[in-house]
Design a protein that fits this description.
By secondary structure, the chain is mostly helical. It has two domains: 64 residues; 54 residues, no CATH class. It contains four helices and two strands; from the N terminus they run ααββαα. The chain has a two-stranded antiparallel ribbon with strand order 1-2. Strand 1 and strand 2 form a beta hairpin. The N and C termini lie far apart (79 Å).
């Protein structure tokens, strides 16, 4: 067992608290227990250190929220219907099919027109692909 060491007082420097955690870890053979014992003393130092970081995170988050609101307003102004959903695959304006797709009908995306055309009789399929070779 190591020599007795004085417990830091509330408001102690973080480096002093970390040194004491190392000391307690040797005595208790558990870093978790040492941290639990010292957390009430360490909390003010940790909060003081984290406060400026949390302020920056809050500011960035507020900027992100404003940007999302601006984008949503621009999409609405442009007439983009964010509730639009493909009747076949369920893709949306914001969650397109893998490889991309576009709207060919109010509720049908271009990626799903292929399966529809495949189900047509040969003559109808020929007419459909004549008008749109991508099908």
């Amino acid at each position: 067992m190591s020599a007795e060491r004085a417990r830091p007082q509330e408001g102690a420097e973080l480096s002093e608290l970390l040194d004491y955690i190392d000391h307690l870890e040797e005595e208790l053979e558990s870093r978790d227990t040492a941290i639990r014992i010292l957390w009430p003393l360490a909390r003010p130092a940790v909060e003081a250190m984290m406060s400026p970081i949390l302020d920056v995170i809050r500011d960035v988050w507020a900027d992100v929220q404003r940007t999302v609101e601006d984008v949503m307003e621009a999409l609405e102004t442009a007439g983009v219907d964010l509730n639009r959903r493909c009747r076949m695959c369920g893709c949306t304006e914001l969650n397109a099919c893998e490889g991309g797709c576009s709207w060919v009908e109010a509720d049908l995306c271009s990626a799903c027109t292929g399966p529809i055309v495949q189900g047509l009789p040969a003559e109808a399929r020929d007419v459909a692909t004549h008008w749109d070779p991508a099908l």
